[in-house]
Design a protein that fits this description.
This protein has 1 helix and 7 strands. With 161 residues, the chain is mainly beta. A hairpin with a 7-residue loop joins β1 and β2. The chain is globular and about 65 Å long.
């Protein structure tokens, strides 16, 4: 009797200890259903390249004409470039103003304003050399126009040839 009790006790202990040594049950998957692990797709940022020389600007139809003024800050510790929307006949037709500064060190700065009004300014960081500035406006017709594309030298710097 003691022997049977001992065997039963050992069997119970084995079952108890055996349950503790196994890892928790994993969810069962059907062999016919493949397990797809989530993958991370890298975000590819398109690289926009600009030609080395400024391109031609576009003529805006007279009834949509607007002007933008570009100014450089002359303080060498803060060589910012500011594009200011001045309005014009197309004042109420401009839905967006985009400014791109291609700095002499190769960096590209961009800024935009939706529905600019007279006096709307976009300020971007330039360098103490000659930087290229591109200003484009989009009209209510959906037509985009590049109205400024040129080099704006920092006072005392040379314009690239």
């Amino acid at each position: 009797m003691k022997r049977t009790l001992l065997i039963v006790a050992v069997m119970i202990m084995c079952v108890l200890m055996g349950g503790c040594t196994f890892s928790p049950a994993q969810p069962a998957t059907s062999p016919s259903t493949p397990v797809i692990s989530p993958s991370v797709n890298p975000v590819v940022t398109p690289v926009i390249t600009f030609p080395a020389t400024p391109g031609p600007v576009q003529s805006v139809p007279d009834y949509e004409s607007v002007t933008v003024t570009v100014n450089r800050n002359v303080v060498s510790t803060d060589p910012t470039i500011t594009a200011t929307y001045n309005g014009g006949k197309g004042l109420g037709m401009t839905t967006r103003m985009d400014v791109t500064v291609i700095r002499s060190d190769g960096e590209v700065e961009t800024g935009s304003k939706n529905y600019p009004v007279m006096g709307t300014a976009i300020t971007l960081m330039g360098t103490t050399a000659s930087d290229r500035v591109i200003v484009a406006v989009t009209m209510t017709s959906g037509d985009p126009y590049t109205i400024i594309d040129g080099y704006y030298p920092f006072p005392g710097s040379m314009v690239p040839s």
